[in-house]
Amino acid sequence: MQLGLIGLGKMGGNMRERIRRAGHTVIGYDRNPDLSDAASLADLVERLDAPRTVWVMVPAGAATQSVVDELSGLLQAGDTVVDGGNSRWTDDEKHAAELGAKGIGFVDAGVSGGVWGLENGYALMVGGDKEHVDRLKPIFDALKPEGPYGYVHAGKVGAGHFSKMVHNGIEYAMMQAYAEGWELLEAVDSVTDVREVFRSWQEGTVIRSWLLDLAVNALDEDEHLDKLRGYAQDSGEGRWTVEAAIDNAVPLPAITASLFARFASRQEDSPQMKMVAALRNQFGGHAVESAK
């Protein structure tokens, strides 16, 4: 099968390679000419045979909208656009309507696998009309892990990115739990080898997971994480998950708390804790520390 792929960063570049290894033709475009196969989006479209399929792997929001707008003027009825980035599911509905008005199909694909996807495969959560999704099945089969799992047609347009959003929300909560457990183990004198405790959990325990394996990898590189600053960014999906929970009246206490913990990581000196310290001093005479 022939595919145009826009965005050849860490994931997009590896996806291009994995699809090619499966025997398909991929023409890639990236703003970095050292990575790009095509000189421009117009050149990429020109080099594809109709009906064309173009997969977009660029940042969510304005960047994706810009590419969709340009493609809508370059593609023809019968072609298909796949958004494989981390777009908000509500944007999918907008893009599907815009492209559908010109007879161009739209599929949203939540993609998980990160830098390990080239060798291990990518988990794919896909939304869109069956006719458009089925046409892309050879590409999905090339990208997914070996075996029966790792791919799902989750539902109509938006379902792929909504599913990936929830996946990332769960990921937030799981990482927060490992982080809290690690900090508590490091805090006590009786546990003298926290790294090996984490390693011991990798086999035979109910909390073993790939995230745990990655935690052990990180501790092998920096046993007490002394080289890192306690700062964690959020890419958007955690916020969207919490917003969707509010809209649907679904309680998500663990995921919500994990998102807020990331906000706390960005504060050098927590204003909230200043008030807590002041109140403890007022009602109980508890000691306070002066600002440096």
Features:
single chain; 292 residues; alpha/beta; Rossmann fold; N-(1-d-carboxylethyl)-l-norvaline Dehydrogenase, domain 2; 2 domains; 7 strands
What does it look like?
It is a single chain. By secondary structure, this protein is α/β, with parallel strands linked by helices. 50% of the residues lie in helices and 12% in strands. Strands 2-1-3-4-5-6-7 form a 7-stranded mixed β-sheet, sandwiched between helices. Helix 8 crosses helix 11, helix 8 crosses helix 12 and helix 9 runs antiparallel to helix 10.
**N/C terminus separation:** 63 Å
Give the full name of the CATH homologous superfamily of the largest domain: NAD(P)-binding Rossmann-like Domain
Q: Radius of gyration over alpha carbons? A: 23 Å
Number of strands: 7
Spatially, the strands of the biggest sheet line up as: 2-1-3-4-5-6-7
Query: Based on the structure given, which CATH architecture of the largest domain is correct?
Result: 3-Layer(aba) Sandwich
Shape, please? elongated
Number of helices: 13
Range of strand content: 5-15%
Instruction: Give the CATH topology of the largest domain.
Output: Rossmann fold
Low-confidence parts:
none
Helical content band: 40-55%
Return the CATH class of the largest domain.
Alpha Beta
What's the average pLDDT? 93
Overall number of domains: 2
Structural class, by secondary structure, is alpha/beta
Largest sheet report: 7 strands, mixed
N-to-C order of helices and strands:
EHEHEHEHEHEHHEHHHHHH
